[in-house]
Amino acid sequence: MAVLAVDIGATKFAAAVAVSPIGAVPGDESAARPPALRHLHQVGVPARDVWATCRELLRRVVGAASADEACGGAAFEVTVVGIAAAGPVDVRTGSTAPLNIPEWRDGFPIVAAVRELFPEADIRFAIDGAALALAEYRVGGLRGVRSGLAMTVSSGIGGGIISDGRVVFGRTGNAGHVGHIVVPGWEVPCACGGVGCVEAVASGMSSVRWAREQGWPGTTGAELARAAEAGDPIALAALSRAGTALGQAVSSAAATLDIDRVVIGGGFAQSGGPLWEPLRAAVARHARLGFIRELEILKSPITDGATLVGAAVLAGD
Ligand SMILES: [Zn+2]
User: Fold this and answer.
1) Distance from Cα 207 to the centre of ligand 1, integer Å
2) What does DSSP say about strands 148-153 and 261-265: parallel, antiparallel, or unpaired?
3) Could you give the C-alpha distances from 283 to 41, 46, 100, 171, 278, in angstroms and in order?
4) Centroid of ligand 1 to alpha carbon of 53 (angstroms)
5) pLDDT tens-digit profile of 240-282?
6) CA of 37 to the centre of ligand 1 (A)
7) CA 196, 201, 207 angle in degrees (round to 5)?
8) DSSP 3-state assignment of 312?
């Protein structure tokens, strides 16, 4: 079986060939080795000709695998494609309509387009949050728990749900849109058209925007985190604001879903104590029901390309 894993992100596309199934880790039964990804290529999402760019990326990955004897050389043939796409998606039509890709705003039939490239292959399609949850559950921070929430906090905020040992997809495939949990106290307009979503308050991009409005001169979430570590009062306030809102959203999700553990990954989640201390303080304040009092909140152990790993797991399952 040759698996092609595809991550249709809102700002970048990535694809790779997964050459091995999930493996055991010698001497550590609690861990699992993710599928090994080979010939990983990625490309920024252009403003126009979005599908042509994506198609070229997939051809490049498959071309590289076909030239690699370790992948089977000329006999290499894609048999399963796992596609994890930024949402909203519609799994009923196999389409995606990421908020950040105007050309696809009305929905792009990604499954049909990929099927044209690989007519013989089995195609599995899920929202990126569900793929992320699958990756965390099988090879990451949700291993060993029956019910949990995987979140990514980067330029946006997304997530996916594991409930009773299964990924929750929802009616249209969009379950786990935790970025649009409404948090109290901030009336910030959100890209979804609503107001006060946690993504509009606590994502890297939203936090940078807020800090700049207060006079901070930087431009990225990583700079904001470094400024907070160095004691910059505006950066500290921005991360405190983000952490508090994240803790509120996590508490609401935990009570709704009855989960053991929340795993948080993504670039902005690497912001350290100035983000995580207010996050934990907000959870301590809000998650008070007995069944979530022991809720664990961990940083994701998957450091690279968790969504792409999830696409590979989705295809390999
Ligand atoms: Zn929203």
Assistant:
1) 15
2) parallel
3) 38, 39, 30, 29, 9
4) 28
5) 999 999 999 999 999 999 999 999 999 999 999 999 999 999 9
6) 33
7) 160
8) helix
